[in-house]
Amino acid sequence: MSGKLIGLIILIGSLIGGIALYYLQVYGFYDPVSADEAEVRLVSVVSDMPEPISVNSFEAIDADSSPIRYRACFTTDMSLSLLTETFIGLDDVTPRNAPHWFDCFDAEAIAAELDAGTALPFLGQKNVEFGVDRIVAITEDGRGYIWHELNDCGEKAYDGTIVGEKCPRRPNLENE
């Protein structure tokens, strides 16, 4: 075989591998969330437990490959003043990017609204999976967005530092 043929085979193999990797990362692992799972919850300041809120037009995607790939969009008729009195608010959150084809979730626009104060972030659920919290941001006009974020326990557990006593017990992954 000549060097040109071997080089061409390597080039074509690399191109096919690159396209497959791109497809799997952007499209392949995501699945739409079923309507049965279309409940949005926020953690109450009174009970410290997630409680459902009224939502419309719920749309979400998730992937089994990572606990932080969840993204959702919805609308609600609840006012921000009622939400801030009833549910636990958060400080300094930044939405994670969503795949470009999930049109309703624009992380830059959501971050701009959070910075401007026209949207407020709330805790949706603590430890939805070990070390991962559900964050819910709601705008003045009732548009809502959900994403998952590593909490302190998750950041410690995944970077290898000592987790500590404040964190819940990590599930035994060997039995899965």
TrEMBL record:
<keyword id="KW-1133">Transmembrane helix</keyword>
<dbReference type="InterPro" id="IPR045616">
    <property type="entry name" value="DUF6446"/>
</dbReference>
<keyword id="KW-0812">Transmembrane</keyword>
<feature type="transmembrane region" description="Helical">
    <location>
        <begin position="6"/>
        <end position="24"/>
    </location>
</feature>
<keyword id="KW-0472">Membrane</keyword>
<protein>
    <submittedName>
        <fullName>DUF6446 family protein</fullName>
    </submittedName>
</protein>
<dbReference type="Pfam" id="PF20044">
    <property type="entry name" value="DUF6446"/>
</dbReference>
